[in-house]
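hi support,

uploading two proteins for the ticket. first:
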Amino acid sequence: MSGTAQVASRSGALKQYIGALNPGSYSLIFMVHEGVLEDMTLKDKSGSVYADTAPGWGWGPSDIANEIPFKVEDHATEIVFTASEPSGHAKLEYELKKTDAEKDVLLKTGQID
């Protein structure tokens, strides 16, 4: 592995994972608790954890875990996941992109209701 991802922000309104990843399949798993984006975990297909905002913490029965699978086709120097909760809305908008050689490539965007 060429590097590890690290948590860049723990704000309730903005979350980012930043780090180097080798080509492969990954999953970004995050928890929404009472409409607030909280803990996030980034794993590869073998289950290895690259970043975790709250290592060892479990999710309670009122928590909702969401998983976003994505692939990195070639080496990425940076992976950024940004999620925002529009004021007064329960929907979570997200964007997942990779950066390599000063170029941003959007991997996935979406919305969680």
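and the second one:
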Amino acid sequence: ELHDVVFTVGETIKETYHDLLDKWFGLPQKMHIDSYMVLDVVDGYEVHLKEERPDQRQKLFFINLGAYKKGDFMEHHANTFLVSDSVIEVKKRAKQNLLKGYEEVHKDDLYEVDDLLEITELNGLHVHLIPTNRKQNLVPVNGYHVLPKSVVKEYLEK
């Protein structure tokens, strides 16, 4: 079972192509994007990226839960982003809110996003979380999005 979730940073999805290709585990010619979203407000916090390290206890988490549904020959998944200073709280909240009515809900992936993004090593940026009253609007852009052949060719030639 493969959960190929990749995190990247850019003003537009096109700006992320080379970084995504760097992180892709397969052939660059087969790399594609199934879904992406902008993280600007998560769980009551604005998400900012800055060069300096944050002075905060709260962390941004990505969680991917798996579960089974009677009669289905597959594992179902749901994922979300949450902010907390506690891994235990994140697991509890996710299990309470995701995949209700499914059997054997279990955690597939749980990461502190700052660690997973490795942004301190890649481009010197750290996740800063600022409390806000702004509404969360995490809307995925879904669809089979193949990178332009010219981008892949340019990437392979570098």
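thanks. also noticed: The first strand starts at residue 32 and ends at 36.
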